[in-house]
């Protein structure tokens, strides 16, 4: 059974209340968020809609999208659920046409040593987490270039900056996404388009919860020890990041105050990469 994902100790540095977020008006902007049915994607879709954006919420989980649409009903912006499997790369690219803001978030995790890692799973991870973002950016840029404004925000990870054992596909995909994001920044700059990564550590999401058992098996420890001895071992702040905190960072990168920020990674890791 998975260990509870709770904050640890007096140094957990609890997140600020939601009201402390940056005020922003995205009225008239269209945002596309992938992996929007849960976790970070859900938080981003709701935050952008609350700021007035028209949000295309993309996911392959129909039930999760239906729930999300209900949650967004009272927000300022409209939210349009779009059922899409990102392994359909042509459909992914087509879905991004006309987007002013693109948030590449969808991801999956599989924990195994390289010699035991199924090649088909490796291929799927890279398709969803690297090739699909490329196709989505490719689909979004013509509209962004045409209007002289656009925001590409790629949800990367500390694993786009560092490596961990047993996560070869995830680490490879996130490192590739960091490079893709920088390339898009260089190409987009003359057209008013910024491209950045938001690179969190371990976030309180189903993706993290699901890997507790795999991490326990890989490291030979009980599941209840995974949080403190593996996931948060090297973090200065001994707690998981909340999805809403990641969404606030995404929102910030869409503000006028962030217009000079491009080609970089905003790291939200509680000091994990300070080592």
From TrEMBL:
Gene3D superfamilies registered for this protein in UniProt: NAD(P)-binding Rossmann-like Domain (3.40.50.720)
Any single biological process term in GO: monocarboxylic acid metabolic process
One MF annotation (Gene Ontology) recorded for this entry: 3-hydroxybutyrate dehydrogenase activity
Any one Pfam family match given in the protein's UniProt record, by short name: adh_short
InterPro entries, per the entry: 3-OHbutyrate_DH, NAD(P)-bd_dom_sf, Sc_DH/Rdtase_CS, SDR, SDR_fam
Keywords: Oxidoreductase
NCBIfam families per UniProt: PHB_DH, PRK12429.1
Protein family per UniProt: Belongs to the short-chain dehydrogenases/reductases (SDR) family.
PANTHER family: 3-OXOACYL-(ACYL-CARRIER-PROTEIN) REDUCTASE, 3-OXOACYL-[ACYL-CARRIER-PROTEIN] REDUCTASE FABG
Protein name (database record): 3-hydroxybutyrate dehydrogenase
Protein species of origin: Streptomyces viridochromogenes
């Amino acid at each position: 059974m998975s260990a509870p994902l709770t904050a640890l100790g007096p140094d957990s540095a609890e997140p600020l209340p939601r009201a402390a977020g940056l005020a922003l008006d995205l009225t008239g902007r269209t945002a596309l968020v992938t992996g929007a049915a849960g976790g970070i994607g859900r938080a981003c879709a709701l935050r952008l809609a609350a700021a007035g954006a028209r949000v295309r919420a993309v996911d392959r989980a129909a039930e999760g999208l239906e729930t999300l649409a209900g949650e967004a009903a009272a927000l300022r912006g409209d939210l349009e659920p779009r059922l899409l499997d990102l392994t359909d790369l042509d459909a992914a690219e087509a879905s991004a046409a006309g987007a002013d803001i693109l948030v590449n978030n969808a991801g999956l995790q599989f924990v195994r040593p390289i010699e035991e890692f199924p090649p088909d799973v490796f291929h799927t991870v890279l398709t969803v987490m690297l090739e699909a973002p490329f196709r989505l950016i490719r689909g979004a840029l013509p509209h962004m270039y045409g209007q002289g404004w656009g925001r590409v925000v790629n949800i990367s990870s500390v694993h786009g900056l560092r490596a961990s054992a047993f996560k070869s596909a995830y680490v490879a995909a996130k490192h590739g996404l960091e490079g893709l994001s920088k390339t898009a920044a260089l190409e987009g700059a003359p057209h008013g388009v910024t491209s950045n990564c938001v690179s969190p550590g371990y976030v309180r999401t189903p993706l993290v919860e699901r890997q507790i058992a795999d991490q326990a098996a890989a490291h030979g420890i009980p599941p209840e020890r995974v949080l403190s001895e593996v996931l948060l071992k090297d973090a200065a702040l001994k707690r998981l990041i909340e999805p809403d905190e990641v969404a606030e960072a995404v929102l910030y990168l869409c503000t006028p105050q962030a217009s000079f920020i491009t080609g970089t990674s905003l790291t939200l890791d509680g000091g994990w990469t300070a080592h």
